[in-house]
Structure prediction request, 304 residues.
Amino acid sequence: MPVIKARVTVTLKNGVLDPQGKAIEHALGSLGFEGVGQVRQGKVFDIEIEGTDAAKAEADLNAMCDKLLANTVIENYSVSIT
Amino acid sequence: MKSAVVVLPGLNRDRDMIAALTKISGTAPVTIWETDTDIPDVDLIVIPGGFSYGDYLRCGAIAARMPVMRAVAEKAAKGVQVIGVCNGFQILVESGLLPGALMRNTSLKFVCREVKLQVANANTAFTHRYKPGQIIRCPVAHHDGNYFADAETLARIEGQGQVVFRYAEGTNPNGAINDIAGIVNDKGNVLGLMPHPENLIEPAHGGTDGRGLFESALGVAA
Prediction:
C-alpha cells in the first residue's frame, strides 16, 4: 500500500502568551547563545496516510487539525505533504 | 434532583466529587463512562478533575472527543445543568461547550494551594446561594488553568455576566486573563471552573465555602 507522508505544524497564534517559549528563550540566553529574539514553541505531527490521492489527504489533514490536532481558539496550523 | 458523574481514564477527583454530591444531595450520583452514549435522565452532570488520557495533546483534548461528551453536549443543549471542575473545565472548553481556552500557568509550575474567589455573578443556577461579590476560600490544583479568550470573546462573556468566579485579593494562581476562575455558557446551564469546591464542603475539610455551589445547582436547602 503506498503512503503519503505529511507534516502538520501547530503554532500559537500571535498575541497568545507563550510562557513555555519565554522559558526556552531565557534558557538559550543562559547557555550563552547571543542574539536570540523571541522564541515561540509548538508541535509537529508526522502523519502517514494510505493511498496516493494527495488532494484528499490534504483535505483530511485539514479536517484533522480543525477537529483534534489544533485548538483553533489559540493555535494556527499548517499542513505539508512531503 | 438526580445527578451523574462522568468517569474517564486518568481522572482522579471523581471519588471526591461523588462523595460531595452524595453528602449534599443525600443521593449518590449515577456514574457514566467514556463510551456511554446514553446518559440517564438526570438534572445535573458533573465532569470532575484529574488528568484524563494523561493530558496528551492538550489537557482535555482527547476526552472532549469521546462518545460520552457528544451525549453530554446533547443533554446540555436540552438545558440539563453541566459542571466541569479543573480537568472537567478543560474538557468543556475543548469540546466547545464553553468559550476560550485553558493554557499553561504563567509560572510554568503546577500550583496546589488555597485561593480566594469572588462570586462575580450570584445570579446563576450555580451561585444563587452566595451573595453578590462574596469572597470565598477554595483550593486549586492544576498546571494548565490560565484562562484565555480573544478580545471579542472576552468582551462578550464579560458583558453578558458569564464570568461567575474571579480570583480575588491577588491570589490568581495561573495568570488567567481578567482573573477569570469560572465561567458559564451563554444559556447559563454549563459551568466550568478551575478551583475545587468539592474539596471544601464539610468541617473535616477545614471549611464549607464550596457547598454553596452544589446547594445552588442541586436545589437543596443550605
